[in-house]
Write a structure and sequence with these properties.
This protein is 22% helix and 29% strand. The protein is of the alpha+beta class. The protein has 3 domains: 65 residues, RNA-binding S4 domain (Structural Genomics Hypothetical 15.5 Kd Protein In mrcA-pckA Intergenic Region, Chain A), CATH 3.10.290.10; 97 residues, Pseudouridine synthase (2-Layer Sandwich), CATH 3.30.2350; 150 residues, Pseudouridine synthase (2-Layer Sandwich).
Length: 321
Amino acid sequence: MNSFTITKNLADKRLDKVLKSFFPEASLSFLYKSLRKGNIKVNKKKKKPDYKTQENDTIVCFFSDVPQAKKVTKIALHTKDSFFIKNFYPLFEDDDLLVLNKIAKIAVHPGSKHNAGKTMLDIARAHTAQYNIKDFDTTLVHRLDLETSGILIFAKNASILRKMNDLIQSRHVRKYYTALCYGVIEKDSGSITTSLERTESKERGTKIRVSEEKSAKKAVTHYHVLKRFRDASLIKLKIDTGRMHQIRVHMKSIEHPILGDNQYGDFAMNKQLQKAPLSLKRMFLHASEYQFTHPITNKLIKLKAPLPPGLTQVVDIYKKL
């Protein structure tokens, strides 16, 4: 079961569009069927797809496994490119910020291994191009790793970019992640504080390691166990710092690497996880919740991105093992 509360930015929108943003991999036919059968209710009542949401509406979805969409649904974008249409899922937008629900295995920005035109930054800019913003290109406020899904924030002007950077550096953005880790974590909660150092090599590329060198930077990660399984733990994490690969390296340092993480985890084990019934073909790390005070409006912004269906399916299977 999943439960959501409609915030002001999602009010006065068609229910089916809101549901699509929460469950980007679900087909519209699946959502329509769920509404018709009462598997999705608003304020404990059945609603039609064209119902206009209201602030503080409570949406409850009585399902855990969502089939992937077989067809691409066209949405309002300043482009007809199917890549943009398929992967554009907004969680929040105002005059200053755009927040998208990032799909795993789509890079956040172009690089040596990721072509321009096929990244989350390109998707955001394709959308904001319709506003004809002069002298500023929509820009990333922060980054997520390639295989990490969830909340990704973009700035639409230079002023908000500076202010958001200040918020992050002063640790006034609360960032929460959901992960499935190898092994049973005995403590209900804990904190990991180490210094991290970046290393480069032709063979391994960029890698982060725990280090006591003066050049290493302090990193702090807090975790809380949500559910324990036979040989894995579902956890919620909060990071005070945003170092590269921080969560992944920290979980490895306590011998509970994230499942599906081939760089810091067990490659052979991850290979087995790709097979049925789990079929985990990505790293199980999801940016699930961000909270901060909007630098312009001074309103508390609470962003939430539910677990993608593929990860929810893995959790459901673990419950039965």
